[in-house]
Every structure is written in C-alpha cells, then in structure tokens.
C-alpha cells in the first residue's frame, strides 16, 4: 500500500507539471531587450498603418516594436502590440515580406487569440483532470499499470487538444492577414515568400512535412497551399511595392544589422565596395561599435553628403560624437534632428549631450528638452534618468527621487521604485500633482513587493 501511495503521488505531481507546461506554451518569451530607435519606430508605424486600419483598429493605438533576438519570429502577447524579432527583419528580403508577417500578427490581435488561449487551456485541463481522476481511481483499486496508462493517455490527449486549438488560431490569423493585405492594397507575394523561407528552414532542420499533429503551427507547406489560392486571385497580387517604403526598409535593415551584429559580420555583409546608403549606415554602426570613431564619422559624413538634413543621419552623427567623448560637438546635429522631427528618443539623446558637457548654462535647456520628451513618451527609462540628473544638479532632491521612482517602476524594480517614491513624498507638498504621482507609484510598487513576498 505505501508503494501504491507513492506511485499515486508521483503521478499527481506529474499531472500538475504537465498542466503547468500547457500554460507556458501560451506565455511569450520574457526579458527580451526592446530595441527602441526613432527611425525604426516611425517606419514600423507608417508601414503597418494601412494594415491596422484594414483590421478595423486605430493605428495610433497599435505599436509594432522590435526586440533584440536573432531568431526569425514575431508574436503578440496581449494588448495591441506586435513584437518583431530583429532576426526576422534581417532575414526579410523586402518590406512586403515584413508586411505579410505583421498582417498575420494583427489577425491574432483582432481575433483576440491571446485572450482566447484560455479556452484551449480550459478544454485541455478538463481532459487532464478527468484522466487524473480516472487514473488515480484505477491505481487505488490496485491496477497501477492500467492507472499509469490512463494518465499518460490523458496527458497526450490534453496536449493534442491544445495544439489543435493553437493550429486553428494560426490558420485563422493567416486568412485574416490575407484579408488585411487585400483591403490595404498590398500584394500577398511577400507573405508567400516568407512562408517559403520558413519552409526551407524546416527542411534544413529535417522537420517532418507529412503531419502537423504535434505542432503549435500548421506546416509551412500547408499554409502556402491555402494562401496561394487566396493571394493569386486578389487584385493586389501584381501590385508593386512602394519604392519609398522599400528604401526605408533597406535603411532600417542595415541599421539593425550594424547595431546587433558583430562588426566583422556587418563589414562582411556590407563591404567597402558597397557605396549605397544602407551600406554606409551599417558600416557607421560597425565602426562605432569597434571604437573607431573617425571611421564611423566618415561613413556618417558620406550619408549627410547625400542628405544633409536627414534627421536620422544627424542623430547618428550626434550619437557617435557624444559617445566618443565630444558632447559639445554632438549638440548641433542633435538639436537640428530634434527641430526636424520633435522625436522624443532623439530629444533624450540631446538632453544627454547637454548634461554631458557639465556646463551649467546647458542644464536649463536640458530640462526643457527632457520634459518635452517625457510628455510625448513616458515609457523611456533613460529620459527619466537624465531628468533626475537635472533635478539633482539644481538641488531639487524630491523631484530627482520621483524621476528615479518613475524609472525603476517601468523597469520592474518594485523595491527600488517604492523607496524612491517614499523619498519623493517626504519632500513634495501633499496634494500636488507630483506628490500624487509619487503616491501612486508607491502604492503600486508596495502591492507588487508584497505579492512577490507571498510567493516566496
């Protein structure tokens, strides 16, 4: 009897772990670095806007963001956010392929698939728990082998049910994406081309192509066959890509490659013999990462020779100068870039340059620039950090503490956010806007700290 009890307990634990693993399938990858860049975010917004509208959503409420991950992937994880891996952009041959991916992900958002994962989980868990009861009963009755067999089949059935649910959602998103592309007047050629890339990857990995039963996604070949029939009869099938959008994509791709890749790889992909704008862009980042500021600036100057008032080329020049220890020289190009775009990320860089001069005369402008940047984009920890430096410089320690609390709060550092918010409230006048904001941060952070403590 004791052996049977231990066996029952072991299978109960196994069932609990299996159920938990199903929940993990619906959870996106965490702790991935978001690549925030003014030009990239503007491009993603413009590229996706017609697709977002076609999906019946408001473009200003949907964000397409890039995360630093070399894998070819994109996903949604709640809210109206599409997360695109840098590896996907590097692998894409043209903007049309990225549009196809984004359209698919918008299908997940519009279909509420992240929320509806709970439906698939409910059915899968129902099968798991039912088999658990039957299996435990069989073991208790003395049929240990039969009981374990029932439990094993139950777990397999639960996983199969969940995977079938996931595949159905992927197929639904494929067709929804095709509708959005059609409504936006964008060809589906890029979508098919990218699925063929994925299919080639499956071939290289020797993934069986005869059965998608054990997969969260349908086989790429299956998806290609279905979508080909939809796309080839669409009026937009032979519509060419927008040349301006394609040119912007080539710049973004080169910039990302230069930023995330090893310099040697970047210089191999974009050799000196390539004198195109994207190549200069990529090499500028490669040389800057390699600590060759003169070579980086030479590449940037080549870009500015072609487009003297391009705000993103000016931004890059300012960045190279600032990070090479020349903050005063960085201010003019950054100031012009801000005047041309009013972009908060570039404004934050300008604020940083002004502070880095350590010239008291520049701190007033830095505060103005940083406050305007935060008013337009509060989700920028570095802007809050720089604003805190300004407040501390002028002796306003309560507001410096509040800026620090804001920064730690968005970084998920709840204990530090709580301490900083409490410190801010000690010096702020009760009832003021800043005091109430510090109070809000303290309340939310305290609850988060307490929740984490209970989980230990």
TrEMBL record:
GO terms for cellular component: membrane. The keyword Signal applies. Transmembrane segments: none annotated. The keyword Phosphoprotein does not apply. Residues 1-31 form the signal peptide. Its cofactor is Zn(2+). Residues 49-229 form the Peptidase M48 domain. Keywords: Hydrolase, Metal-binding, Metalloprotease, Protease, Signal, Zinc. GO terms for biological process: proteolysis involved in protein catabolic process. It holds the Pfam family Peptidase_M48. One of its GO terms (molecular function) is metal ion binding. Gene3D superfamilies: Metalloproteases ('zincins'), catalytic domain, Tetratricopeptide repeat domain. CDD domains: M48C_Oma1-like. This is Tetratricopeptide repeat protein. It comes from Sphingobium indicum.
